[in-house]
Amino acid sequence: MSRTSRAVRRELPAAPDGVPAAPDGAPAAPGGVPAVLARARALVLPEIRRRVEGLSPEVRRVAAYHLGFVDAVGRPVPGGSGKAVRPALVVLSAEAAGADAGVALPGAVAVELVHNFSLLHDDVMDGDDERRHRPTAWALFGVGPAIIAGDALLALAMQGLLDAPDGPRRRAASDLLGATLGMIAGQGEDLAFAERLDVSVEDCVTMSAHKTGALLACAASIGAVLAGAPGEIVEALSSFGMHLGLAFQAIDDVLGIWGRAAVTGKPAASDLREHKKSLPVAFALSTPGPARDRLAKLMSNGHVEGDALASAARLVERSGARERCLAVAERELALALRSIDGPWIEAAARAELEELARFVTAREF
Amino acid sequence: MSRTSRAVRRELPAAPDGVPAAPDGAPAAPGGVPAVLARARALVLPEIRRRVEGLSPEVRRVAAYHLGFVDAVGRPVPGGSGKAVRPALVVLSAEAAGADAGVALPGAVAVELVHNFSLLHDDVMDGDDERRHRPTAWALFGVGPAIIAGDALLALAMQGLLDAPDGPRRRAASDLLGATLGMIAGQGEDLAFAERLDVSVEDCVTMSAHKTGALLACAASIGAVLAGAPGEIVEALSSFGMHLGLAFQAIDDVLGIWGRAAVTGKPAASDLREHKKSLPVAFALSTPGPARDRLAKLMSNGHVEGDALASAARLVERSGARERCLAVAERELALALRSIDGPWIEAAARAELEELARFVTAREF
């Protein structure tokens, strides 16, 4: 297996280097890193460290390495990996419902653990050997330990929601399992689509809704669930997260073909090379004509490399797929913001949700 | 990776061919297949099929194949794989607390799904390409689809326990997650021990308690939890399951070195070949003397094959490890039966628990 990882890019967002964190409590200036990210990290990291400490030593060292708590030989490292976008959504979803961030803690921890479970397994499935500028867990410790560590994080996630006998936590656990199953379905579709040429735009959006939307929808609503918020608030926040996920994925898919070319100077087009049926490819393949047929032919021959790869990227570009993807992202971002545009969402939380949404969908091209 | 799977053998029990199932409701004759197995299968299989039907198509075909619901090309197959020992324990644990088998259903389904999650992942980790006389899921569909299908079964298992808002189910879900984490710890230890020579008998028993005992303890008590039984009944049943797991694993470890030799005529000794630190090996390595030193030397050189393998098996045998393992199995079986020897366990269920315990620990040598 040597498929390029969707998972790496699913690790949203790539924060611009050198942007200082905003002072605590104040939203960052437009374009900066939202303050809620630091707040969410401060809340969840100690608890995640504590939970991971409770794992058996063999599993713990792999999980702790993956999470950035220790280096390759087990020496402690300050901080932890990941930007905590999902925990930030959980915190804001509790605050959106008028509750304290503390109410969101078990949900924020659980969502972040589920996310990391999926990263550990995706790296194995996709054969990716680097993440966050370090060797991936399987590359360092082997496939078995990486699978087991992922399994452990999924189980830990659920356990944290169930160790207190109150109704909202059970509901939260149930929601998170639904999201996990959605994510699993999406990864299954992603793997299967690589073998097919008849992936429609609708298929592709469904896959993104599963693979990326489900967990973001859960992250954006689970805090409100834990706060015991009314159904319409939970629904609105969930809808916000789903649309945000679709917006993010559309941009991510554009980067998967054209992004790295701009940054690295080489025609990466890794999604094309690996036959990924991302949104631009689905757009191009569903636009009838000779260009579509040439693309389909190029993409039905083993790995696409060299001149064929450059041709395929040009054919996708000429179909107008790039602009259509960016339009999808814009529309989905608007739908996300419209979902939370009501008096039942706390105004301060709404402002931070909007800031976060713009941050994770504003990617460098 | 080409480690011999502990998981295959963990799939207890190997039912003698040609033994007819006992009529419904009546315990089988001594030495036959316990009637509770057919009863448990009839209870859980339709529900497991229904749950698996709800998975996305790509994940479903792999899960359904692994579970024996369809063949390699997706054609339906009657029945389903596995003997349903764990669901049988769950059913009996509800009945032991005076409740109906129906109360146990969500627990029986969840425990069986967790068991199959672990089999799917263990086959990948151990590189085993055959299970139940069919190619394993990863061998047929690839590593990625097999990991994803395992993930899906774990999530489905928990979801089933959480889709109704009652307290006992939350407690059951929490117990099952604890058992899952135990099982994960055990698999981690098993992988790590292959690299070590200083595995003590105590380390090995701890590993078995995790790898095999934790899920059997949960299976044997989760029905009582769902029935809302008092703590002492739950504790007694959990203790029964843990001791049963240790008894089973001790016998399984004996089979891992000497069992197949008797059945197949070749000196399989697969645990030795793969450097597994099973109980007999731990016994032999902890018995000081020149034999121990020769064994340690043999087992520190890459794969053990040919003459070296035969020598290693002889050294383990001469240390008296085989008899010590069988004594452990006997003692643990007695402790299991003593755990449920009280007036608070329903007599009929106790008789069936005992029959089942004797069945799964009576292995052909």
Give a structural overview.
Two copies of one chain form a homodimer. Chain A is mainly alpha-helical and 365 residues long. Chain A has one domain: Farnesyl Diphosphate Synthase (Orthogonal Bundle). Chain A has a two-stranded antiparallel sheet with strand order 1-2. The first copy, chain A, is built from 16 helices and two strands. In chain A, helix 4 crosses helix 9, helix 4 runs antiparallel to helix 16 and helix 9 packs across helix 10. Chains A and B meet through helix 5, helix 7 and helix 8 of A and helix 5, helix 7 and helix 8 of B.
Task: List descriptors.
homodimer, 365 residues, mainly alpha, Farnesyl Diphosphate Synthase, two-stranded antiparallel sheet, 16 helices, 2 strands, 69% helix, globular, disordered N terminus
Largest sheet of chain A: 2 strands, antiparallel
Question: What is the name of the CATH superfamily of chain A?
Answer: Farnesyl Diphosphate Synthase
Shape of chain A: globular
Alpha carbon gap, first and last residue of chain A: 28 Å
Oligomeric state, counting identical vs distinct chains:
homodimer
Per DSSP E runs of 2 or more residues, the count of β-strands of chain A stands at 2
Helix and strand run of chain A: HHHHHEEHHHHHHHHHHH
Total helical elements of chain A: 16
Computed Rg of chain A: 20 Å
- What portion of residues of chain A is helical? 55-70%
Please identify the top-level CATH class of chain A.
Answer: Mainly Alpha
CATH hierarchy: architecture of chain A: Orthogonal Bundle
- Please give the most extensive interface between any two protein chains, plus how many residues each contributes: A-B, 44 and 44 residues
Tell me the strand order in the biggest sheet of chain A.
Answer: 1-2
The proportion of residues in beta strands of chain A is under 5%
Q: Quote the CATH topology of chain A.
A: Farnesyl Diphosphate Synthase
Q: Which structural class fits the helix and strand makeup of chain A? A: mainly alpha
The overall number of domains of chain A is: 1
pLDDT under 50 segments of chain A (min length 5)?
A: 1-10, 13-29, 263-267
Give average pLDDT of chain A, whole number.
Answer: 84
